[in-house]
Amino acid sequence: MITLQVNGKPRDIDEGLNLQSYLATIDVNMRFIAVGYNGQVVRKEDFEKVALHPGDALEIVRPVGGG
Q1: Of 64, 52, 45, whose CA–CA distance to 12 is shortest?
Q2: Is residue 67 part of a domain?
């Protein structure tokens, strides 16, 4: 297990996951999210290339409707 910061909170995840795999484990709609990885926005086509390491910081954002 490793610990990441996800939206400012510590999260323990299995070691060896990439960003794509992690997002699948938390059941997010990949079509409607943006992800920041250690302060950099990651393009969706690069999610699979991003290896996650202890202490990494993720910001996962989704659009919210309203008015």
Answers
A1: 52
A2: no
